[in-house]
Specification:
6 helices; 204 residues; single chain; alpha/beta; 37% helix; 7-stranded mixed beta sheet; Rossmann fold; 7 strands; binds S-adenosyl-L-homocysteine; binds magnesium ion; globular
Length: 204
């Protein structure tokens, strides 16, 4: 089966099962970023069925992705999709809660696309796995347009989630070690990079 066909099949499956894979526009933005910045080594938090991991790996044969997923059924589906696309030598899937997963590996890019309520924890935990000049990219910063919108009509649960993302945005804006840019693409993407003063040439 050809690549395009398998990818369309994944999109259809995600749509039918309500699995929140990256929006097309956001996916294109991310793969273009990987291409332009010659990113080779990626850690993804939240594989779902492997859609974004596969798209990132397809940017170039030298790209390697490690991706963590806590839901067993989705993980199994991801393993199958990665095999079908013959990418198992370049995509490593891990069944675990990301907050319980530890590694000493350093990555060029950490892509956060998992539980919104844990974004700050993911950022703090995995920033030590980032190469000096690496990037942390976070998806769903706009949360379907709900961020910064009127919360009075929202359910308690939804309001809680939206508040968490707003807190994450504030956390990024006020972060002393990272500079973050926000992009209105897909469901909202943030790109964070260590500030210059932390790449060895410390200024006072
Ligand atoms: N990146 C995927 C979509 C991920 S959807 C793509 O675009 O194709 C978010 C996924 O994160 C869900 O499958 C959910 O089970 C997983 N997830 C949420 N919290 C997690 C955690 N703490 N550790 C690991 N996976 C988590
Ligand atoms: Mg997402």
């Amino acid at each position: 089966m050809d690549q395009e066909f398998l990818i369309r099949k994944m999109e259809k499956y995600a749509d039918e099962k309500g699995i929140p894979i990256m929006e097309k526009e956001g996916m294109q933005f991310l793969t273009e970023f990987i291409r332009l910045n010659k990113i080779k080594n990626i850690l993804e938090i939240g594989s779902a069925i492997g859609y974004s991991a596969i798209n990132m790996a397809l940017v170039d044969e030298s790209v390697n992705v490690t991706s963590i997923e806590r839901d067993k059924d989705r993980y199994i589906k991801a393993v199958k999709n990665v095999k079908d696309l013959k990418l198992d030598s370049r995509i490593t899937l891990i069944l675990s809660d990301a907050l319980n997963f530890n590694t000493d590996e350093k990555y060029d890019l950490i892509f956060i696309d998992a539980a919104k309520s844990q974004y700050i924890k993911f950022f703090e935990k995995f920033s030590s796995n980032l190469k000096e000049k690496g990037y942390i990219i976070t998806d769903n910063i706009n949360f379907h347009g709900l961020v910064s919108s009127d919360k009075s009509q929202m359910s308690r649960n939804l309001k809680g989630l939206v508040t968490k993302i707003e807190k994450y945005i504030t956390f990024l804006k006020e972060n002393k070690d990272f500079k973050t840019r926000f992009f209105e693409v897909g469901d909202g993407v943030a790109i964070s990079r260590r500030k210059k003063s932390y790449d060895g040439k410390k200024n006072t």
